[in-house]
Predict the structure.
Amino acid sequence: MIVVESVHKEFGSFTAVSDLSFTVAAGSVCGFLGPNGAGKTTTIRMLAGAITPTRGTLSIAGVNVAKNSREARRKLGYLPEVNPLPGELTVSEYLRFRCALWGVERAARRSAIDRVIELCGLAEVRRKLLSALSRGFRQRAGLAAALVASPAVVILDEPGTGLDPSTAVAFRELIRSLRGEHTVLFSSHNLAEVEATCDHLVLIGRGRLIASGSAIDLRQQGAVGFRLEIEATRFDAAAIRAVVGVVAVQTRSLADGWTCIDVEIDGAAGTVLSTAVGQAIHTAGGIVRRFEAVNPPLEQIFERLVGAKRAEPVR
């Protein structure tokens, strides 16, 4: 697992991380989120042992990073946002080099390389130069290098940056496959990607913890209501707007003659308000063929959670 406990990091007079604490459970995939300047990169570098905290404790798989940095790094696989691959080596040559760096026993290197090549879908390019690979295969090669020594913890910093949509979907599936065998901390700006990939989310802002939990938990913490999408005929828009808790009603005509009604709802009593909106349409003699509650995007939830902390001073 990963444990960050009361961590504070200062660069001169600038506070990058302030009293930050969170835990990533063993075998889980955790999304690490926050706006630019939130302190994500600084935290990742402290976990990797590249920089030391001003105070506080970080541990990787039970090993204190500050007290036993070498052993902590042995338990950590890291794929940075800028994946530094030596273009003059083939995939297999690079993985052999990484095995040597990790100290993998010679007798175990071939099986270790074969394992990650299969896991990361690199069989067709294992003899190709890294410089000849597509962005997607370069990211897979970087991930294979991070996994070749079977580390307990894997940190991925913006691994989906620059991937085309189909490649990004395949890469998400690959990350999900690490669940159970590895503990994964996954930093990304793509919130849809994180929600589709991770079991748990940690949101930070201005170096402080803002919220943590599942996507459902964070939606509840930053509740902004939700939207109804309704396809109906013979409705009374004024009657829908009159329902207490309805913020806005917008309509658009569909090609087949039906109307799509977008109803924005504020507050927590979603079920009650949904029933009232449905009753308003029924009273007008309308026929409904689709009635769907749509959750707000995580971007909206996170903006609300981050905004709630902005007025608080950094300690």
In short: Residues 2-214 form a domain with the Rossmann fold fold (CATH 3.40.50.300). The CA atoms of residues 136 and 163 lie 6 Å apart.
